[in-house]
Amino acid sequence: MQFKCEQFDALDTQTLFTIMRGRVDVFVVEQECPYPELDDVDIALNTQHLYTLSHGQLQTYARCYEKSAQYSAIGRVLVSESARGNGYATLLITEAIDCCKAQWPERDIYIGAQTYLLDFYRSFGFEDYKSEYLEDGILHQDMILKLTK
Q1: Mean pLDDT across the stretch 122-134?
Q2: Which residues of 106-143 are buried (b: 16+ CB within 10 A; e: fewer)?
Q3: How many CA atoms lie within 13 A of 63 on its CB side?
Q4: Alpha helices for the chain (secondary structure H)
Q5: Using CA atoms, how far apart are residues 64 and 132, in angstroms rounded to an integer?
Q6: Which of 41, 83, 94, 125 could anchor a disulfide with 59, C-beta 3.0 to 4.6 Å?
């Protein structure tokens, strides 16, 4: 599995289309959440698009970005339906954490996790932050991976 990590401007049109279609397939269609999936974070200067492709199809994706002066963030985490069950989610989150550490070493890492994945994210050291909330009809929990003291 070969991860690529690129800024928006470095993505060729075919790769960008594949990523966007994969995100819409998972977050809008599969999860039945009609919401504006594409946003300004995608095109922000320092956002890193982390992904893997297999035979031109998206396998995994996450975006790493600056959330605030205190936090970097991992978002839009997905493993495509055809790639699930192979341990790719663990590899993806490990790569995403490494990306955030490399880009923003002085910041803790934030993730807005769907609550059914809390134990998965806790296994990487993420801790619950604040209380659960409903976002686009799905329960979420803010979590922080502390890198700073």
Answers
A1: 94
A2: ebbbbbbbbeebbeebeebebeeeeeeeeeeeeebbbb
A3: 25
A4: 13-23, 40-43, 88-103, 118-122
A5: 22
A6: 83
Residue 133 has pLDDT above 80, yes or no: yes
Give the tokens for residue 25: 């397939």
Residue type, 15: T
Give the whole-angstrom CA distance, residue 113 versus residue 118.
Answer: 7
Q: How many Cβ atoms are within 10 Å of 62's Cβ, its own excluded?
A: 25
Predicted confidence (pLDDT) per residue in 33-91, tens digit: 887 788 999 999 899 999 999 999 999 999 999 999 999 999 999 999 999 999 999 99
β-partners of residue 50 are: 5, 62
Number of H helices, E strands in the chain: 4, 7
Which residue from 133, 132, 1, 145 is spatially nearest to 64, judged by alpha carbons? Answer: 145
Residues counted in the chain:
149
Structure tokens at 49: 């698009």
SS3 114: strand
